[in-house]
Amino acid sequence: MIIDAAELDATHAYKLLIGSIIPRAVAWVSTVSREGIANLAPVSFFTVVGRRPPMVSLTLQPLADGTTLKDTYLNIRDTGQFVTNMATLPQADALHASAFEYEPGVDEFETLGLAKEASVVVSAPRVKEAPISFECVVDRIIPVGDDGVDHVVWGRVVRFHVRDDLYLERGRIDTAALPAVGRLAGEYTLVDNVFTTPLDPEVLEARRGRRMERLDAKPSGWSPIDTAEWSPSGSTTAPGG
Fold first, then answer.
1. Fewer beta carbons under 10 A from the terminal one: N or C of the chain?
2. CB-CB neighbours of 130 under 10 Å
3. What's residue 228's pLDDT?
4. Max Cα separation, the chain?
5. Three-state secondary-structure class, residue 180
6. 12 pairs with which residues across the strands?
7. How far apart are CA 163 and CA 24, in angstroms?
């Protein structure tokens, strides 16, 4: 199938992007407002953009209504600071729940019962249980799209926080010790295997046509995108979606 991107609205383009670019790393972004209220939300339009200095990128969409800017973006814009925290399998439920569209002024840490840890440089707190966190200061903010409500944020990493047991010789991270959680379309995936190439032909053949294993007992092919709670914004309109 060939699809003309010019004929797609934002919702359909979003579905194609999030279902095709998988798995995506999830930045669990903590910020603080000018009034001192903490905020926490997942962002899966997230990647590395530089190494000298180390920099990461977030792309932030508005809320489900398509126009209201998220607290995460407003706090980053207003303070110039944020933290990207890594979520692992034990934090997956809280990670998802932090995407709910809470009222402005709600501290997701308190609502979800998550412990805060003070950062060294930036005002935003870190997620205490996160095995890895980056303290970031804004390098630039770039409006994207025809309507100007999506924004790309480039953040310069000023402090790395790595759990001691994960930090190996020569500055390497023990990735195999991390039950990392990634984003698919509207669902999540657990990173639980590693390999180098080339793989034996027998291994490739044994996996030919195999679907992903579901860990949640839902039927194959089920997706939260087909539910009323899902929205093309990276946020969830109500708990339980």
1. N
2. 20
3. 84
4. 59
5. strand
6. none
7. 22
Q: What would the CATH number be for the domain defined by 5-226?
A: 2.30.110.10
* Whole-angstrom distance, CA of residue 239 vs CA of residue 189: 20
Burial classification of residue 111, based on how many CB atoms lie within 10 Å of its CB (0-12 exposed, 13-18 middle, 19 or more buried) = middle
Token pair in block for residue 145: 């799209």
Nearest Cα to Cα of residue 28 among 113, 88, 106:
88
Among residues 58, 19, 26, the alpha carbon closest in space to that of 223 is found at: 19
β-partners of residue 88 are 180
pTM of the model: 0.95
Q: Return the C-alpha torsion angle 137, 113, 90, 215, nearest 10.
A: -110
Tokens of 124: 């935003």
Domain positions in the chain: 5-226
CA-to-CA distance for 224 and 228, rounded, in angstroms?
8
pLDDT at 239 over 80: no
pLDDT tens for 184-232 read 999 999 999 999 999 999 999 999 999 999 999 999 989 999 988 888 8
